[in-house]
């Protein structure tokens, strides 16, 4: 990671004249002076791909500790939570059966009619063939 002079160097990824170079894998940077500091990767391609970090440092008087907060609002009991009637769960609906009644089976008379026809044709064919 390197620190650059200003926004022009950061925008153009001009890494030729850095202010400071950090070489440790884990780096601690003191941000004690007020102003904006500009950091990027030492790799120019990473900078061109958007690995840039401008850091705006403000003085402590503008920090979160400078504000005085009033006392918290009084804590009271919460009203019970009940869903409004229009959001009540719907009445359960009984689903239709997955399968209806089985189709009617043909009667035995249908089978006998078909069998007798086949026998008649067979007998006729054998009589003619003789």
From TrEMBL:
The chain crosses the membrane at residues 108-128. It comes from the Eukaryota. Residues 1-59 form the Phytocyanin domain. SUPFAM superfamilies: Cupredoxins (SSF49503). Residues 58-106 are annotated as: Disordered. Keywords: Membrane, Transmembrane, Transmembrane helix. Signal peptide: none annotated. One of its GO terms (molecular function) is electron transfer activity. Residues 70-106 have a biased composition (Pro residues). It holds the Pfam family Cu_bind_like. This is Uclacyanin-3. It comes from Phtheirospermum japonicum. The lineage of its organism: Eukaryota, Viridiplantae, Streptophyta, Embryophyta, Tracheophyta.
């Amino acid at each position: 990671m390197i620190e650059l002079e200003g926004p022009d160097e950061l925008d153009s990824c001009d890494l030729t004249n850095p202010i400071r170079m950090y070489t440790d894998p884990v780096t601690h940077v003191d941000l004690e002076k007020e102003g904006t500091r500009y950091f990027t990767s030492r790799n120019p391609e990473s900078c061109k791909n958007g690995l840039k970090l401008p850091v705006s440092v403000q003085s402590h008087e503008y920090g979160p500790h400078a504000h005085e907060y009033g006392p918290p609002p009084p804590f009271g009991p919460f009203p019970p939570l009940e869903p409004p009637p229009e959001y009540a769960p719907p009445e359960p609906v009984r689903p239709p059966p997955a399968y209806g009644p089985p189709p009617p089976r043909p009667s035995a008379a249908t089978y006998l009619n078909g069998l007798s026809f086949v026998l008649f044709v067979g007998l006729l064919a054998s009589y003619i063939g003789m």
